[in-house]
Write a structure and sequence with these properties.
Layout lengths: L4 H6 L16 H16 L7 H19 L3 H8 L4 H21 L20
Helix pairs in contact: 2-3, 2-5
Length: 124
C-alpha cells in the first residue's frame, strides 16, 4: 500500500509497544526543550571535563537533527536510537545526570591515590 506524505505525517501511533512507555503527545518540541536545558546545565561544569565535552557533542548533534525536520519518523531513523519516546527517556535521564555529575566533581583528582599495583592481578 502506498501512502502520500500528508497521510503518513497525519498518522498517530496508538502505542509504543513498550510496557510503561506511553506515546508522547508532542515529542519533537519536548525533546528540543530537554536538549537545550541539558546544554545550559552543562555550562556549569568545567570545560575540561570529559563528561561535559562528550555530552555536549552528543546533545548538540541530536538537537541539530531534531531541529532540522518535523518528521518524527525521519528523526527516529537519523538518530537510530529507538522510538522517539525512547530518545526522550534517554535525554531526560541525561538531563538528570548533569546536576549529579556537578555534585560528584568527577573531573577532580582522586582524594585517595590507589596502590601502584592495584590491578596487576587482572593482567595475568
Amino acid at each position: 500500500m502506498l501512502f502520500s506524505r500528508p497521510l503518513l505525517n497525519a498518522y498517530k501511533k496508538a502505542s509504543t509497544g513498550i510496557t510503561g512507555l506511553a506515546v508522547h503527545p508532542n515529542p519533537r518540541a519536548h525533546l528540543v526543550n530537554v536538549y537545550k536545558s541539558t546544554l545550559k546545565s552543562l555550562e556549569l561544569l568545567p570545560a575540561h571535563s570529559a563528561y561535559r565535552q562528550a555530552t555536549e557533542v552528543l546533545t548538540t548533534q541530536r538537537l541539530e537533527v531534531v531541529e532540522k525536520t518535523e518528521d518524527i519518523y525521519q528523526i527516529e531513523a537519523t538518530l537510530a536510537a529507538g522510538q522517539i519516546e525512547e530518545v526522550i527517556a534517554q535525554a531526560e535521564d541525561e538531563a538528570k545526570l548533569v546536576p549529579e555529575m556537578e555534585k560528584w566533581k568527577a573531573w577532580e583528582p582522586l582524594e585517595v591515590i590507589p596502590p601502584k599495583d592495584q590491578w596487576k592481578g587482572f593482567n595475568q
